[in-house]
Amino acid sequence: MTNWYLQNGKDSDIVISSRVRLSRNLSGFNFLSSCPIEKQEKILNKIKEILPSLGYGLKYISLEDLDDITKLSLVEKRLISPEFVINNKNKKAIIINEEENICFMLNEADHIKLQVFSSGQELENLMNLAIELDEKLGEIVDYAYNENFGYLTASPVNVGTGLKASVIVHLPALTLTGNLSKVLRIVNNLGMSIKGVYGEGTQNYGDLYQISNNQTIGITEKEIIANVKNITEKIIEQERTARKYLCKKEIELKDLVYRAYGTLTNSFKINSDECRKLLSEVKMGVDLGILNEINDSQVKKIKIYTKTGNLQKFLGKTLDGYEREIKRAEVIKQIVKQ
């Protein structure tokens, strides 16, 4: 089966992916900041023991059993957080399935970060899957829960439902028309968070932005999903309006797209920053039907397999910076020729 990040979903021309994450902690154990190593190991063993009863073909992998390139590749797919890899003080593990649309982080900030993923805008379906997994797990282990506050988490911002819903959106036309900053301000003013795909300071990461909820307490899971979905639909509308405006200047738009395609597919070496920028313009051209020399499936493969960690995983060897630039260009040509 094709992994979710290589598939299409609803509104995939603009919504790259959706994620629903639940933060949970086990009753009887301290939060990780004051949880001894032996207790952390007990948490991992407890969850590992009950794993078969959850189903979905989930497997347990200790983080220390993964090499650095594999860890980086998982971060690049957004299956695990950079912080999860960087902080080596805690005993950690992941639970993941073959399709990689389910991935738990164990002993990140909380004991359990239950995550489900999909291509396109699929927040409601993901919420249902997350709740199903959460209920199965909750029948076997005791969660840290308070009748007044809800699920207790290491960070106060996640107390309550513990649910974070997020989508990654591709907004090249809003950038090109100069309307992006206005849209970002509106989203922030509506109580949502919008930032770069890997956190603050990454706003120019290939015109990709992450929209997510700020509030988790005093609001239901369905309300969170509805709010994020509503904001996402408004942004989709704004981006599509901006794309229609760009299409009025047909020659200029075709020139932009084909120059990007020409450079991307004919370079003999290319760094990751330039690759992201060019691929953003190429994807827009494919989505608008301007560029027919490459399809959406190929765009998705280039997006994944040109990232630093996944490039090395794809090729099966460790590369230095200069070697990566050369091999990245070769991989792009290989994917385009398929």
Spell out the blueprint of helices and strands:
Layout: E1 15-24, H1 37-50, E2 59-62, H2 68-76, H3 82-86, E3 93-96, E4 102-106, E5 112-119, H4 123-138, E6 145-146, E7 150-151, E8 163-170, H5 172-176, H6 180-189, E9 192-196, E10 208-213, H7 221-247, H8 250-266, H9 272-287, H10 296-305, H11 308-315, H12 321-337
Helix pairs in contact: 2-11, 8-9, 9-10, 10-12
At a glance:
By secondary structure, the chain is an alpha+beta fold.
**Range of helix content:** 40-55%
Kindly report the name of the CATH homologous superfamily of the largest domain.
Glutamine synthetase/guanido kinase, catalytic domain
Shape estimate:
globular
Give the overall average pLDDT: 93
For the largest sheet, list the strands in their spatial order.
Answer: 2-3-4-5-1-8-10-9
Q: What is the total number of structural domains? A: 2
Radius of gyration: 21 Å
CATH architecture name of the largest domain? 2-Layer Sandwich
The H/E string reads EHEHHEEEHEEEHHEEHHHHHH
Q: In words, what does this structure look like?
A:
- The protein is α+β, with helices and mostly antiparallel strands and 338 residues long.
- It has two domains: 4-242, Creatine Kinase, Chain A, domain 2 (2-Layer Sandwich); 250-337.
- The chain is 46% helix and 16% strand.
- The protein has twelve helices and ten strands.
- It has helices at residues 37-50, 68-76, 82-86, 123-138, 172-176, 180-189, 221-247, 250-266, 272-287, 296-305, 308-315, 321-337; strands spanning 15-24, 59-62, 93-96, 102-106, 112-119, 145-146, 150-151, 163-170, 192-196, 208-213.
- It has an eight-stranded antiparallel beta sheet with strand order 2-3-4-5-1-8-10-9, with helices on one face. Strands 6-7 form a two-stranded antiparallel sheet.
- α9 (272-287) packs antiparallel against α10 and α10 packs antiparallel against α12.
- The longest helix is centred in the C-terminal third of the chain and has 27 residues, at 221-247.
